[in-house]
Amino acid sequence: MPSFKIETPSLSHLSHEDYINVYEPAEDSFLLLDALEDDLELLQQRRPVLCLEVGSGSGVVTTAIARTLGAEVFCLAIDINQAACSATNCTAKENGVKVDVINGDLVTPLRGVCAVDLLVFNPPYVPTPHCEVITSLEEPLTRAWAGGERGREVMDRLFPLLPEVLAPQGLFYMVAIENNDVPQIREVLSALGFQSHVVKQRRVRGEHLVVLRCQKHSDSLE
Ligand SMILES: C[S@@+](CC[C@H](N)C(=O)[O-])C[C@H]1O[C@@H](n2cnc3c(N)ncnc32)[C@H](O)[C@@H]1O
């Protein structure tokens, strides 16, 4: 019987010290999980072979996906922060699932190699000065939220890579906030050959969070 629930993995192995360098799951992480849970029937129907989370942080999202979709799905996580990669590894192990973790930038390690069936990204989306995005190598936590101009600098680098990495029937879920200019993000995605919809949204402490679901224009979903 298919299950239509996504359970939040245990994170009890991560301590306050871990969260000095790794993004602690917050409302954005849980909104993404809620959006995936709403779409679980669709995800299971698509029978994904390869799932990738970019920017896995603590591993909460990728571990939840791996637990829900089962061992026949190959789960991969990429994070630019080595401490986040270690945390993702631990979270997967502690919750009894296999996730392969790569320390790298966006989807670069996969370019030209793999077609991703389910791609998820909770990016650094907070508008900040440009210098915070590029000078924060020694401050891994800043890289978790600092999004540069309009909060778009990191996600905007991923969009042009989507046509190359997403499978023809692949689905891409991404968190954004209103300040990122969601209508303009959708225009960018459309120009790249993707239709997108806001599938979940929530106002949290003055921030309007959304989750976008994208698929190729040629992929008739609804
Ligand atoms: C907002 S946190 C999300 C963490 C986790 N996915 C969650 O939802 O709780 C963003 C994550 O993206 C990672 N990140 C930032 N820039 C990246 C890049 N260029 N490539 C890969 N990961 C990146 C950060 O290190 C951080 O772990």
TrEMBL record:
Gene Ontology BP, a term: methylation
This entry carries the following GO cellular component terms, namely: eRF1 methyltransferase complex; nucleus
InterPro entries the UniProt entry points to: DNA_methylase_N6_adenine_CS, Euk-Arch_PrmC-MTase, PrmC-related, SAM-dependent_MTases_sf, Small_mtfrase_dom
PROSITE patterns tied to this protein: N6_MTASE (PS00092)
Q: Which domain of life is it from?
A: Eukaryota
Annotated family: Belongs to the eukaryotic/archaeal PrmC-related family.
> Can you say what this protein is called?
Methyltransferase HEMK2
- Reaction it catalyzes: L-lysyl-[histone] + S-adenosyl-L-methionine = N(6)-methyl-L-lysyl-[histone] + S-adenosyl-L-homocysteine + H(+); methylarsonous acid + S-adenosyl-L-methionine = dimethylarsinate + S-adenosyl-L-homocysteine + 2 H(+)
UniProt-annotated location(s): Nucleus
GO MF annotation terms: nucleic acid binding; protein-glutamine N-methyltransferase activity
What are the protein's UniProt keywords? Methyltransferase, Nucleus, S-adenosyl-L-methionine, Transferase
Q: Which SUPFAM superfamilies match?
A: S-adenosyl-L-methionine-dependent methyltransferases (SSF53335)
**Which organism is this protein's natural source?**
Gryllus longicercus
* Subunit relationships: Heterodimer; heterodimerization with TRMT112 is required for S-adenosyl-L-methionine-binding.
Q: What does this protein do?
A: Methyltransferase that can methylate proteins and, to a lower extent, arsenic. Catalytic subunit of a heterodimer with TRMT112, which monomethylates 'Lys-12' of histone H4 (H4K12me1), a modification present at the promoters of numerous genes encoding cell cycle regulators. Catalytic subunit of a heterodimer with TRMT112, which catalyzes N5-methylation of Glu residue of proteins with a Gly-Gln-Xaa-Xaa-Xaa-Arg motif. Methylates ETF1 on 'Gln-185'; ETF1 needs to be complexed to ERF3 in its GTP-bound form to be efficiently methylated.
- Where in this chain does the record put each Methyltransferase small domain? 43-126
